[in-house]
Specification:
heterodimer; A: 138 residues; mainly alpha; 3-stranded antiparallel beta sheet; B: mainly alpha; Hypothetical protein af1432; 11 strands; 52% helix; globular
Amino acid sequence: MVTSPRTYVLPDDVLSAVLELARREIGKERLAFSGHDEDLQRIFSEISQDSKYDLLRLFVFSTSTSGPRPYSPALSDSVSKLQLAGLLGRQNPDYEVLFTTPSATRFYEEVLSHKFSRGQIDQLREVARKFLTRIAPI
Amino acid sequence: MTADVASTRERLESRVESFVKWTFREHRPGRSHGPKVINDALLGNLYFSRHEVAVIDSPLLQRLKRIKQTGLVYQVYPSATHSRFEHSLGTATLAEKCFNAIQERASVESRRVHLDSDRTKGDLGHLRMAGLLHDVGHGLCSHASEQIYEHLSDLQEFKQNPIYAKNSPGEILSYLIITSPTFRSWFAENVVKACQAQLDLDLVGQIVLGRHQDPARHFLAQIVSSPYDADKLDYIARDSYYCGLALTVDLPRFYSMISTDVQDGFGVLVLRSYVPLEQILFSKMMLFGSVYHHQKAKCLDSMLRATIQHIANNPRECKISLDGRDITFADPVDYLYMMDEEFFNQIHPFGDEFVRRMTGRFQRRELFVRCLEISRRTVKKKSWEESFGRKMLLDLSDNPALLDGAERTIHGALPDEVKRKCDRGEVLLSVPKRPNLKTDFARVQTSPKAQIETIEKFFPVEQWTDAYAHNKWRSYVYAPNEYASAVRDAAAEVLRTKFNIDVDLAISNETCHQD
């Protein structure tokens, strides 16, 4: 059975790395920010307009333009998967606040930092900085 | 679009065209069709026009009678033997009800929506035809096989094109079938010419994909493909009815709340109240918990995956010859040729000893047993909360090669005397993806003058699905009963050492009825 090599770096790997690198940029124990899924869709759609962020193509590939607002099922699935995996949490009572967990940091250190090349990590760090300008860390 | 994606498209189109030709190979269009009233157990009398009856009687729709709507779930809920065929009739009917509801709502709100209600050529005609044809891309066991072939390279590459980003593999195949040369030619002769129905198959195909060539009419596509489309309205009601579950979707109330407005130049569906949508989401979550993710349903899906994987990996010994065509399941279109009963009953005998043993198990319902549960309840708290093992486990559901590797590792860890008797394909790890409860943002507009907002602003749909996932999500290890305890011990050891997931065997054993 021939399956796609694309599956070796998963969209949620990219999202997890961006969020962890953003956490490192702000120097806090966790990255917490307010935002519904719709806000994440808009933010990543805007950042991915810059073609130099080719790693975001994992999302761009899947961004549908059939309706009024861009919508990436891969991004939506990634948020859900990271929550189920325990790398991303959502805070009560309004559920608007998303936050990274200590497991996300360990996953980056032990797995993702080896999965991506130096150049890719630089690119993801740039994306993380742009991401931070579009959210309000709590 | 890159050259690779273009060539992938051409390859898939060519294979789909061969399939459609094969499907129509013995078709002899009969006498001129008249309109029909079809009595549906769920929805009552369904009315179909002459040109729709021609399509219903075509081999493309008739083959859907041989594909069960809920795949292998009938082995768990015996009455769930309903097919994709009746679901397609229901979807076309409910699409019209949505269409009418939009016009009625516009009328009471003194707004004008310019829609053509002619079933033979207008907006309604295209909408109903899309409802009828939306599932023609389904094959063996419906979504059970879709979970397997979605990983094949051709479809993965195809989905890199943003046009198909939101679409399931089955929807993409439906679109390619609808727009195939053979079906176009049949449709032109038997629908357009014979029944004077001026329907454009390109538009029908676009609606199936959730698109419309006229952005102002985007909402028509949403009636067939959106968070509360006619497809979902039918299958939630139909699946729960045939499984004998008392779930409620108040369709009349739902229709009364549908309206349309314009957002960024697109005509979009909006709900005047979010309450009917809550009901739909609740019902869908209940169906996932009780039916689609039932532990035995997942066991059956895993057994089907192991059987198909074995055939794909051993094409010389296991290929299925079907009217001159070899099926090896290495190509997404292969899954369209094979119908449920033909596969499990070995109508055209195929396969080696392993495949025959597995199909025999399906026939006699001699299913594997669960020997280990991996869930929030069974995994030790520290390991569940502090490790990233769950992420590594979930990655297996995105990569069949990794899943195969994990199962091989468990098999390799069995004691030698068990390993000699237990086939590698008899050690199965099921890692369900999180239930997909969302396909885009549902929009709410409480009055014609109010702002259009996403459903998340009204109730935390994400949190509901998260809570569901955290509490209901379970991964299982399955094996034949005689190897259950050995496989359990090997799996627990592999999970602990390779994934840092420490399962409390006492709790898991209780759930899995193991000693």
